[in-house]
Amino acid sequence: MRAIALREIKLGFRNPWAYSFMALFALFSLALLLIQSQAGMSGYTSTTGTMINLILYLLPLMTLLLGSFSLTSEKEEGGWRLLSSFSLRTHSYIWGKYVGLAVVLLVIVSIGFGLSGAAGALFGRGFELQAYGRFLLFSALIIFLFLGISVLLGAFCRNRWQALTYGVGVWFFFILGWPTILIAVLGFLPYLWIKPALVALIFFNPAELNRLFLIVKMGGGSILGPEYYQWVEWIRQPSGSFVFAGVCGLWVLAYVELATWIWERGRRRE
Amino acid sequence: MKTKNNLAIVKALAVGLLLASAASLAAENSDVAAASAASSSAEATDLQPLIDATPAGETLTLEKGRTYAGPAVIAKAITLRSDGTATLTNESDDPVLTVAADGVVLRDLLVRDSKKDAKKPAILLQSDRNRIEGVDIVTQAGGIFLRDADDNVLRNNRIQGASAGGSRKAAYSKRGNGIDLFASSGNVIEGNTLIRVHDGVYAESSEGTKVRGNKAVDSRYGFHFMFSGKPELKGNVGEGNVTGGMVMGVEGAVVTDNRFAKQTENVNSQGILLFDVHRSEISRNRVEGNRVGFYVENSTENELAGNEIASNFIGLQMIRSESNSFKNSAFLSNVIQAQASESKDNLLHGNYWDDNGGIDANGDGYSDMSYDIDPFFLQLTKDVEAFQVFFQSPGLPFLAQMFHSDTSNWLRDREPLMSPPDWQARAGSDDGLWLTFAAGILLLFASIFTFYRWGYRKS
Questions:
Q1: Which of B246, B84, B242 is nearest to B157 (CA)?
Q2: What is the distance in angstroms between the Cα of B47 and the nearest Cα belonging to chain A?
Q3: Can you tell me the ipTM of this complex?
Q4: Domain ranges in chain A?
Q5: What is the Cα B346 distance to its own chain's centre?
Q6: Does the domain formed by B43-423 have CATH 2.160.20.10?
Q7: A to B CB pairs, distance under 8 Å
Q8: What are the boundaries of each domain within chain B?
Q9: How much is the pLDDT for B16?
């Protein structure tokens, strides 16, 4: 598994896509930082809110595409066939891929954050350290969770084109279309069911789950209104963080294991 | 507080004698010498006999560091004072001091009230033209209540409520109001500090109350007016309350130069709330870091000008309000700058919105394009409150965009200011930024190292 992860890191940095995403992310976060007025660099403000949205627009798409491409290209280019001739378990292969990809993506956002953090501070428009750390953690979590989905996509899709289509589809569903779809569908439910259904569905959307967690941790929980009072109170406690970490862990585990299972099935059929 | 109290008792033991001190040389015989042999036994001296022995118009000076037991009623115009270290205590359910005569002065006293009924005060004023200055109250109940009491002056007092020193989470309903006015007109409340009480200053059916330069912290509402004509709320500060300034059912209020910050804890938190408020002036206030900066409901014909609304979750929320004007204010870094629904004929003019990309072709400093305020989210959450969870969801603008068919009834600033008004001080501090800088550099190096070590170098 370690060998696969190291190989994945090496491959990942040879991928020109990685650099274009890196440039895009660094550029956008820098630009945003410079556009914003200086007020509101800590707590939940428009500056931090915009930053959340930038991360949510860009990172999941980046993760979905890089991750699923990495797996499907192995199928297309015969890397996997070569590797299968060694005694290699699918399990360690997929997890190795996951870890390697996670490292590559983390390096990409770290460079983006490193640049914007240092440059922002130089121009006197930086985030406070706490907010900065929260964003970093938030981005890392987004990467881990969406990488789970993207590994599953990679296992499922036959080639890169298919992965691209599905990847963009998943991104659109979870990020752009989410409120529209939910509001439309939940409108059919009896009023009392709406909130429980909404809360349950949020746990299936890593982007929303992460976003709400971050907002609450930034002290913005009260904006969600009286309906979510108990949730907010609960997340704010330290135990809320642990449960959240547990949910994230479960998420990743479930998706990667599912990917392994699909991949293994494909291997048997060959 | 506890040690201070003990200290006071120890001091009282040491002195062991009650002396009347000459407060004013002119009033030589005003001193009340009530030397008590029992004082050596740490017992508090009863206050009422001392008051009874003081003739009207004279000063009763309480001795340094001693403790006196209430409750007491002041029924003649005297001055009750100490050098700021004499303590009044109370075990009963009555107020520590009841002021029933006009022209009483209370000055520089410590009041420690141990009753717990939030409806009952430590000091009750039932008369006119009294002055209360420099009184420090710690109570589990109410602070200073005014009932049918006109033209009083309350200045530089300090009131600490509900479980002061203990857990600060005492339920709001179990707290008493700091300063509570009912049917009392023309009172001046100035420079007081109100901590962990129910409402800092509460005025009901009281005309012309002037509330200036007070500070309310960690309370329910900082300053609360109900059905009171022409109140003045000027230069006050509120932090960490549910709502800073709450003005309800009022005409002709003057709310200026206040500063309300960090009211975010509660789901109903606001900086300044106006409900059923008409023909009032609300200007030069600064609301920062609240859940909602300005909340305006059912209010008409108010003039809001020169306010600074910064870093709130929602800057301005306007519901069922008509014909108000909002001018020359600065909206900075609010997550949502403004929301409005069922509100028409409101005039927004010359405000600065920091997310506005306007065009100023003729160079008059105002944008030629209006700043439009989309009511979509407010309407969405009005029907189903649970949808509030989509607040600032990245997909929401996408949905809102699709509903932009009829924008004619939107709230809009026709001539938004291009750059912040002069008076707006550039907030934000540079301290701590070098930490972020260091973290950024560290991150950069770590990632470049990872890239070089495992990505680039041939292993």
A1: B84
A2: 47
A3: 0.78
A4: 2-269
A5: 28
A6: yes
A7: 200
A8: 43-423, 425-459
A9: 41
